[in-house]
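As a next step, the fold was encoded as tokens, giving this record:
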Amino acid sequence: MSRVVVVSGGGTGIGRAVAEAFAADGERVVLVGRRPEVLEATAAEITAAADGATPEVEAVAADLSTAAGADRVREVVGARAGGVDVLVNAAGGNVALGAPPAEGSPAERAAEHWTGNFRANVLTAVLLTEALRDLLAPGGRVLLLSSIAAYRGSGTGSYAGTKAALHPYAFDLAAALGPRGITVNVVAPGYVERTEFFRGALSAERERTLIGQTLNGRAGTPEDVAETVRWLASAGAAHVTGQIVQVNGGAERGR
């Protein structure tokens, strides 16, 4: 019997690759995000690629940085599926990248960046998880997407700080949900190509630098992260919980 897998940020990049991996396994996938047109197109494409071999991929548009958005997902998923077996919190981003410079005083600019990244990276994960918490099936899986920036910084502080905030949340959640056989883990990627993360602001020189920091000499791919998530959600990882798994080609160590 197929599992119900909810993937936030599932319309593009890492989230999409995660959705494709679970769909390929015949799971019932629900994509969640802010942009309905992107979600619906992605859901249709993944469903068509499966050619009838998997349940239809569904899309639920919601702003997960708000309680109302998270509650909407709970309402829809609860009505359609009744419960959740796997929750992958892949929504997020760095509001300081590719955006016009913030105006105002240094404190006002910092407030804008920190508040924006808190909403994008912490609230989107925490609110959705808490909204679906009692719908999680025994033996379920919760995955949160962090970043190498949580270890090395991000140059702006706010992105790294908000990604790092997910780590203790995951530890506490793992302890709370463990008695139900539910595992909670964090995946922390390094530089991953073919995503919208940099919003066109990544120069060729900076990309070479990021790749040069890896020990295997290549960029990460969305599929690298998706396969790690897929394993953590498998029966084989039932005794792995409260962990942070880095997927960065060794770049956290630097070169």
